[in-house]
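Field guide to reading this record: the first block holds the primary sequence, the second block holds the structure written as discrete tokens, and the final block holds curator observations. Each block starts with its own label. This record concerns HTH-type transcriptional regulator GltR, catalogued under organism Paraburkholderia solisilvae.

BLOCK 1 — SEQUENCE
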Amino acid sequence: MSAIRYFVTFLSVARHGSFAAAADEVCLTQAAVSLQMRSLERDLDMVLFERTPRSVSLSEQGRTILPLAETLVANYRKILAAGERDEVAGVVRVGALVSSLMGAFADAMLNLKRRYPKLELKLFTGLSSDFATRVDSGELDAAIVTQSPAGFPATLKWTALYSEPMVLISSIEDPHTDIDALLREPYIRFDRQTWTGILIEDALQGLGAPVRDIMELNSLEAICEMVKRGFGVSIVPRLANANWNPESGLRVTVLPERIAPRRVGLLERREHGREAFTDAVKRHFTGVADDPTATVSPDAGGAGASSSSD
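BLOCK 2 — STRUCTURE
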């Protein structure tokens, strides 16, 4: 059992290139991660890492065993899930956007925990693009991600759960209320390298509004704080549970209907051992599990997705 844990830690170090980052992910101290990796190297009689004072990277031997370790861990998790395939129980590893935990997904998780007391959720926050890789490899059982602008691999299935309209936020102290006038003010841009950032760029093009950037951030919370303080305006998805009212210091301006919303959905492998959990999540939002009309084909990029929350 401990050997499996060591391989889980090994995969985390390989992914992050850092003992410290891996320690955060697997809930250990950095010293414990280092000790585990030394023990694994000794047991295998291999040097798995090239260590420097500032970083750690896989050695040639480490790169050789990486796919074997991925398969080993994935198969072990399948064994654990085999007895619980038809029951919403046990440990389920789910990736989630930080913003989804401020929105409708948080309510869904609370509901599921109340309904299924044997369920143990392990949530990992990050970016949608990173989660796609981690779900495909079997490291995560599922993830809550935005709709990909480029589609997903054929091995994955994305089901639309809910949508968040794009809105223009400004400080409550801002004298302007017209969209065109607001967009002539300093603009705080959401990171264009993220899927949400790409969608916001499409919204700006749809509005035909050239903007004057003053900063680019990858955190909705940080953007909201900058806007409250009067640094500028921004276009962001309207989160379900966000306290964006005049008392919070923000003014929310609705954009025209032609501006596409951000669609958030459940990403899973087409075959996996946690269907009971993923079906329960889908039922929470749509009332129907595994509705074929609610999935996006790998190369569709977004066409054909359906959800009762849209």
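BLOCK 3 — OBSERVATIONS
The longest helix spans residues 60-82.
The chain has three domains: 2-77, 90-163+263-296, 166-254.
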